[in-house]
Amino acid sequence: xxxxxxxxxxxxxxxxxxxxxxxxxxxxxxxxxxxxxxxxxxxxxxxxxxxxxxxxxxxxxxxxxxxxxxxxxxxxxxxxxxxxxxx
Length: 87
Ligand SMILES: [Zn+2]
Prior knowledge:
Order of helices and strands: EEEEHHH
Oligomer: single chain
Bound molecules: zinc ion
Helix content: 25-40%
Number of domains: 1
Strand content: 5-15%
Strand order of the largest sheet: 1-2
Shape: globular
Distance between the termini: 24 Å
Number of helices: 3
Number of strands: 4
Radius of gyration: 13 Å
């Protein structure tokens, strides 16, 4: 298990129930269940920019200040899902 989802950056350390699922039902070691279910991304057409907007909206809903949300999503392009795209 990584410390954070490699798609949206959600902290997953110590929270195995947040893990996504593979086709065979195993827990994903890389992605959370918001991003990845049954072996596929839930938003397969997302670009990293769209994921950033999605995360900012979700964090604002949860009461995060916009500045903190922005600082958080700046790291998203370094995550596995996005850093390997097109490589
Ligand atoms: Zn995720």
